[in-house]
Amino acid sequence: MWRPKILSFHLYWAMPAVLACWLLPPVSAQAESAEDVATARRTATEGIRLFQQGDFAGALERMERAQALYDVPVHRLFIARAQVKLNRWVEGAETYRKLSRLELDAKAPKEFVSAIESAKTELAELEPKIPTLRVVVKPETAKGITVTLDGRELPAAAVGIERPSDPGKHTLVARGVGAEAQERSVTLAAASKEEEVFTFAAASTGAASVSEKGAKTAVGEAKTKPEDKAKAGSKAAAPEKKKPFQLEFMAGLRLGLSAPNGDSVATVGVNEKKNLSMGELAGTGGGLELRGGVRFHPNLTGVLYFDASTVPGGTWNPYPTKVVTEDVKFSRSASWTNFGLGVVASMDPKELGVFGEVDLVLASSLTAKHTFTSPDVCKGDVNTFTLSGSALRLGGGLNIPTKIIGTLTPLLTATVGKFGTAKPVLGCGEKIRGVGMEERANPTVNGSKLHSLVFLGIGSELHFGGN
Q: Which of these, 321, 441, 310, 328, lies nearest to 385 by C-alpha position?
């Protein structure tokens, strides 16, 4: 808060000085009655007391009344100080300036001289702190545009130039004939220089000209050639140019359910099982995907992603029947991972719409884990069976923009491919060769059928940069 420094007129001495001034001739030549002087004395006393108590609005009202009854520099000084305390800096500066320009004769009392010197000092401290506001209307040739500041219309001559303004929050409204009103809020800080630009389309400025000219314009239109009207209409209807597209970055997360389908097509020696279906290796479970990318075209985004699904094991039993007895514990689990890149086609991801996605899965891996525990032979025989290959993923969904968690993306995708390699990792199977378990170590892949992984879920994407 601005606090004026007082050279020779401290508040402590304000009351005695005012009392002294009432005993001296007024500044103006107008003759005041004894009743006016007495009333001014009482009113100014109340005003100074209110100022010292922090009631600046009440102090200003009292000091203005006292000044109207009896014109002395002390009244003007306190009026300016109260205006500044109420954040009416521009008005206070003008009051200081008028007071500082008063000319006193050589016999003027020292209280008058002291008040004027205080006004000059406080004005010099206040002026650099007064903020300015510049209001610009485009195009500059626009007519019929009115701008109001806090409900008061700005003079046309004040548009486009810096205007000293009071600190705090202000409301600007610009209106044009045939155009929607534009409202802005601006907060001015001490010594700040702010600028607000209002842009109107050519159509609205043309409508303003019609409104101003009235019947004269109508007569002019009657004389205008049809081809000239067509040209003017095409210019007025031309839309504003859009900003050029800029690269935009994306980061996202997806959660949902993964369901494997089809055949893994592995040939396994144990139990003479030829084609293992996906359901025999893995079931339906939860999946998570991390993704990032770059929107390099208004409708295309390149993505790189990694997803992982943890699912229950399937129904396949790799052990001979004679090994799995009542005292044997046997459990299954599975996991699926995919790593790839692709392209997403959509409208602006930050607007409600649909999208489609095509991805090349560079590395797809399904691992089925079987745990075999026998109290007689193995304390914990954990065997894994991993199938690897490449695939193609297709999908699509909705873009639902939100203000909190980015763009929500309900989606459905299907990964389709073939496994090309199979890798077993045995636990303590070497200890039970006598029951034919060694045959588990020889799976192969013939690659004759397709498998798929269907993912149903919802995601969230955050977009950075761009327009």
A: 441
pLDDT in tens, the chain (467 residues): 445 444 334 443 455 555 445 445 555 545 578 899 899 989 999 999 999 999 999 999 999 999 999 998 999 999 999 999 999 999 999 999 999 999 888 888 888 899 999 999 999 999 999 999 999 999 887 778 999 999 999 998 999 999 999 999 999 999 988 888 999 999 999 999 999 999 988 655 544 443 343 434 444 444 445 555 555 444 444 455 556 778 889 899 999 998 888 876 665 554 445 567 787 778 888 999 999 999 988 889 999 999 998 888 777 666 555 455 555 666 778 888 999 999 999 888 778 899 999 999 998 888 877 676 665 555 556 667 788 888 899 999 999 988 888 899 999 999 988 877 776 665 554 444 444 444 444 555 555 567 888 999 999 998 887 76
Is the preceding peptide bond at 375 cis, omega within 30 degrees of 0?
no
Neighbours of 214 (CB within 10 A): 9
The DSSP call for residue 56 is: H
pTM, whole model, 2 decimals?
0.46
**Measuring CA to CA, how many Å separate 108 from each of 95, 100, 342?**
20, 15, 89
Bridging pattern class, strands 132-138 and 193-199: parallel
Q: Is the CB of residue 4 less than 8 Å from the CB of residue 81?
A: yes
Nearest CA-CA partner of 29 in 69, 61, 67, 71: 71
Sequence-distant (≥ 6) Cβ neighbours of residue 415 within 8 angstroms = 338, 361, 364, 391, 392, 393, 452, 453, 454, 455
**C-alpha distance from residue 423 to each of 47, 274, 376, 378 (Å):** 95, 16, 27, 22
DSSP per-residue letters across 167-205: SEEEEEEEEETTEEEEEEEEEEPTT-EEEEEEE--HHHH
- Distance (Å, whole) CA 207 – CA 377: 95
Cβ–Cβ < 8 Å for 99, 116: yes
